[in-house]
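Section 4.2 – Deliverable D4.2 (structural model, holo form)

The reporting period included a commitment to supply a predicted holo structure for the target in complex with flavin-adenine dinucleotide. Inputs used:
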Amino acid sequence: MVERYDVLIVGAGHGGAQAALMLRQQKFAGTIALLGDEPEPPYERPPLSKEYLSGEKTFERILIRPATFWAEREVALLLDRRVVSVDPAAHAVVLADGSSIGYGTLIWATGGSPRRLSCPGHDLVGVHGVRTRADVDRMMGELDGVTNVVVIGGGYIGLEAAAVLTKFGKTVTVLEALDRVLARVAGEPLSRFYEAEHRAHGVDVRLGAKVDGLVGFQSVGEDEPARVTGVHMSDGEVLPAEMVIVGIGIVPAVEPLLEAGAEGGNGVLVDAQCRTSLPDIFAIGDCAAHANDFARGATIRLESVQNANDQATLVAKTIMGAADPYHAVPWFWSNQYDLRLQTVGLSTGFDAAIVRGEPASRSFSVVYLREGKVIALDCVNATKDYVQGRALVLGGLAPPPASLADPAIPLKSLAA
Ligand code: FAD
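Output (structure tokens):
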């Protein structure tokens, strides 16, 4: 008989785990399976470039729930298994080993895989993406023999890894193709602040950097694959690197759904209840392209724990009969050195950025406006602004810019 579950969740990461948790919390009485291609039970991904990489947290401490929890809640954990195709008419998925699993409802929560370089040398040993525990364990296993690390991509993950590796005493270079770090996610004041912080910690931050290829070394007469030794820049310079970390975004893992006929492209398209265009199939988290109220209705994918958890919660409630549309305020965080960045709202499309407080004090916020209304805040070591600013974003409020710029005026007084 074919294995079958009332709800089959594909992807045992943040969104998948939360969907299973919420279904049980909402008293869903049917069978649930949480299937994923990694060997570990669901774990938190953010610490991979922070406390897990630095050794401050063990793997057990980053598990979303203790390993025994899932069986106690009657959630079948099907680990180390990969879905390769979906048959929406038969309500079944096919796994890499050729077996099938049937479902009543399918929740697709597969995240994405790190975008790879396409230049020569991209597959040399010592070149790493940062997405899974296995990626980071592999990196950590090589660190002893490494002096020079080149990080390609000045986004959050690359900068967080750079901060940890600098603490380990490595010589770190960050290569960013654009003219500032964090260019896709933050305004210029924040980018310049982080650029200066990394430089002050000894990181060689290079902007407008163009990589031609990676160079490697193969020991004569040995069977070992070639290892990376350097990064070849387009101006001819070769930067020494025994390790290269590639942090240039992800490719959403939606191929099986698109092949089955789901609408989408960069992610799978979902409606306000996270339904795909295929019957009884939802999609959530990093792989779900949705119209977001905080992006003025634009169709976007959000790569954050908040979005994965909130969409999972929404789907669990939808399965239980509720019909609220997705309307969750985006939030995010990043830890680098002793700096805790907390972001609320989405700054894309801002037409003014107000700096609140003094960046030199290492505690300040950037308030983003569009047509006078607050759309987002980036708060560095400024949790009060982050907490109080949420109401400004949620309400689309338009306080006087001079008041927003004055750290002596609490943001909550501007939301009144
Ligand atoms: P994931 O958590 O990635 O889970 C997807 C799972 O599905 C994976 O295990 C994947 O291997 C599996 N899978 C994929 N395809 C298949 C298939 N065909 N069959 C079976 N299984 C499959 N967000 C924040 O908000 N704050 C942070 O500070 C932060 N830091 C981050 C640091 C790092 C290093 C990384 C990688 C991410 C970080 N994020 C952060 C982003 C956050 O982790 C993601 O947004 C979140 O994990 C998305 O959850 P998800 O369920 O969509 O995908």
